[in-house]
Write a structure and sequence with these properties.
The protein has 107 residues and is mainly α. It contains three helices and no strands.
């Protein structure tokens, strides 16, 4: 469980809420940004197997394509698909799922 600035334990959901709330307030104030900064809500989701990992990774890599920032995911210079960054392994062996994932907690 993450620690708060005061050293007490807090849930991941609460930690995300604090980060989103604090950064949203500051962004809107300092940049005079009139719009919502973050999407409402938060949902923690475990990735269960290598197939789901690949699907989520591809979805994220295609965001710049869907936004029409680039034609191909590999063309986005800040994305994992561009090949400039060393990525951590997915944490699953081919065909493994759930308890068979490498490491005690999966990903």
């Amino acid at each position: 469980m993450p620690s708060s600035p005061r050293g007490t334990e807090t849930s991941l959901e609460k930690a995300v809420q604090m980060i989103k709330g604090g950064s949203s307030f500051r962004i809107r104030k300092e940049l005079m940004y009139p719009f919502q900064v973050w999407q409402a809500g938060y949902h923690d989701r475990w990735i269960r197997d290598v197939h789901e990992f690949r699907m989520r990774k591809q979805y994220i890599e295609l965001n710049p394509v869907r936004a029409r920032s680039v034609e191909k995911a590999a063309d986005f210079p800040l994305g994992s698909a561009c090949g400039k960054f060393r990525m951590d392994p997915c944490g699953f062996e081919e065909g493994a799922s759930g308890a068979k994932a490498r490491g005690a907690g999966g990903l």
